Amino acid sequence: MDFWVVARFYGKADTALANVKLGELGAWLGRRNLSLGGIAGGFSRGFWRWQHKYLQPKKVGIAPFVQFTVGSMILFYALNYGKMKHHRNVKYHW
């Protein structure tokens, strides 16, 4: 049965980042596709891996909903940080 999996990279296999020596790091980074399409493809593969692991199994737990909630909390904290930093309670106002 041949089918295409969205979460998989079908290009030539390369050395994993964990197996790269420090001297080879520059060459390894040079082989990455840093174009807009390559970065978008990486994000797409990551998103589909997350989908297949957490949202699409038959018995879905609470993990994807907690991850979404925590991610939303972090995002909105970062967006509103500029407004909230003026309302800090500090002991000394110098």
TrEMBL record:
Domain of life (superkingdom):
Eukaryota
Coiled-coil ranges (or none) = none
Q: Which InterPro entries match?
A: F1F0-ATPsyn_F_prd
Major subcellular location class: mitochondrion
User: In the UniProt record, which is one GO cellular component term?
Assistant: mitochondrial membrane
Q: Which Pfam families match?
A: WRW
Q: Which UniProt keywords apply?
A: ATP synthesis, CF(0), Hydrogen ion transport, Ion transport, Membrane, Mitochondrion, Transmembrane, Transmembrane helix, Transport
Q: Name one GO molecular function term.
A: proton-transporting ATP synthase activity, rotational mechanism
Q: Could you mention a single GO BP entry for this protein?
A: proton motive force-driven mitochondrial ATP synthesis
Q: Where are the transmembrane segments?
A: 60-79
Kindly list the places in or outside the cell where this protein is found, as annotated in its UniProt entry.
Mitochondrion membrane
- Matches recorded under PANTHER family: ATP SYNTHASE F CHAIN, MITOCHONDRIAL-RELATED (PTHR13080), ATP SYNTHASE SUBUNIT F, MITOCHONDRIAL-RELATED (PTHR13080:SF20)
| Protein name listed in UniProt | ATP synthase subunit f, mitochondrial
Organism source for this protein? Daphnia magna
